[in-house]
Amino acid sequence: MKILQLTAFSLSLCLAAAGCRTVPAPADPEDVTVAVFSVNDFHGAFVADGRKSIPGAPALWQTLDSLRRVYPNHITVSAGDNFGGSYFYQSTHGVLLPVLFDGLGIRLSAIGNHEFDDGQEALAAKWAGTPLRPAGWDLDYVCANVRDSSGRVPSFARPVATPSVRLSDGREVNVSFVGLLTSTTPLQASRSKLKGLSFDGRYDRVLDSVKALPEFQAARAAQIRLLLLHVGTRTENGAPSWDDPEGARLSQLRDTTWHGALTGHTHQPVCGRIGAARIPAVQGQWHGNYVGILKFRLDGRTLRVKDVEPQLCPVRPLTTLGPGARRMQALTDSLLRHTTTPGGTPLGQRLTSSPRTLVHDRDDKWRQTAMGSLVCEAYAEAYRKAAGLGPDAVIIGTSHFGSIRAGFSKGDVTVLDVGEALPFANALRVYRLTGRQLRDLVEFGLHNRRYGWLQTGWLAAERDAAGHVASLAYTGPSGQSVPLHDDTPCLLVTDEFITTGGDGYPPALFPAAQETHVEGLPATTDAFIQYLQTFKTLPLDRLRAGAQP
What we know:
Elements: H1 2-18, E1 32-39, H2 57-70, E2 74-78, H3 87-91, H4 97-104, E3 106-110, H5 120-125, E4 140-142, E5 146-147, E6 160-161, E7 164-166, E8 172-181, E9 198-199, H6 203-210, H7 216-221, E10 224-230, E11 233-236, E12 239-242, H8 247-251, E13 260-263, E14 269-274, E15 279-284, E16 290-298, E17 305-314, H9 323-338, E18 350-354, H10 370-387, E19 395-399, E20 411-414, H11 415-421, E21 428-434, H12 435-445, E22 455-457, E23 459-463, E24 469-475, E25 481-484, E26 489-495, E27 515-516, H13 524-532, H14 540-545
Parallel strand pairs: 1-2, 2-3, 3-4, 8-10, 10-13, 13-15, 19-26
Antiparallel strand pairs: 1-16, 5-9, 6-8, 7-8, 11-12, 14-15, 16-17, 18-20, 19-22, 21-26, 21-27, 23-24, 24-25
Helix pairs in contact: 1-2, 2-9, 10-13
């Protein structure tokens, strides 16, 4: 009874907050309710962190346990980005994700752009060699708009899947899912991980083509037909809208084939009806903050859909956990105690202290943040140390805005805090540039209207009235300012992601002939960890003074 009361309370909170309309209870006692639950953009957020509004995997497990008691006829799926962006996931090699998804009942997922983080072979293997992978558990990916070099949907995906929900009277309700992935994936994943793949942004045409496939015959006959999309939505003026360069193609759909859309990618809480067809749509923010729900009312005799109610259920950290959630908590705690970074630092170790909260908000990305400055200084100093250079050597650190996933909360900063802020542990690349080449990079980075400003360390940029870069100056550890003229030689240290076209940066800005190498250069996250250990307290006054170019 306590679980039911908790769930009803949680649902009432989110319905009011998200603007979802409430549908009256079915008038016909013969009607059948089937609930489709979804999570999206979990990003391996197993560890609860109240300061960052991350409820943690045990709370997500417990919430879904509660919902399944309320709605015994159910199925649970994911809208993609199940991992990526989580240092805990990377450090523990993802061993807990199969355990979590098995416990949540997830056997079907959209492909997100981060599903490619470990490469196509790992995507196809689906943690096959993971020691904690539950016996009998498997995961199918649905995605109709990814093609391999032969023009076919690759073997790790299928365009449509039609699982069933068995009712208490023995009848089955078939629920069909067609998957799509945002066509911007090549700008949001490493080019080497996407070799041979293409992503079709003509979503409307893709959906039409799926209907001609033999496997769609089962979908056509299904009682419930859904879109499972890693194509983002957001709420504008109280109503859901598509947030994708090709979103208009979905917005204009008038097709009555689809009973609902489960979406992901934009990390927004979304609940309502979307587009010309008024398709019920949900998106549960990210990190397991919400469970998305499409609640179907079916005619008890024909099992025909009579109505659909979209809902969001908030996930709150809970003190009382059931057996499955308790096991997940125990496994998480054990890995926190015994896992170290590649550099050998335990995940729970304290590094420094922050006298105030540092905000790095990916929805407010056209600015230089203090967190960005700190990260980029760490990159520069990692190379300075590895190369044995002094403080006067002109070394500039840079990063694309999106690689920094969060800031720091006021107070102690631990290794796990660093990992969650800078989770990708990418290689650092170093280039010998001229001042003019550096200015060209900064100019592009300050006009990257889709992905946000280039973040820099030890660099001061002056802009003219039109917003273009007028001058640059190096302000390094010594505090002395050195003008960077067009012919001034300098060293650039950056996350390798943008050097190969990530976030839209032209690779020509990073000339291969000008790359230089040094032994002992750490990856991004360990470079940041090592830099933070040099401070008893973070020097935020200095960072704040240079925070806005």
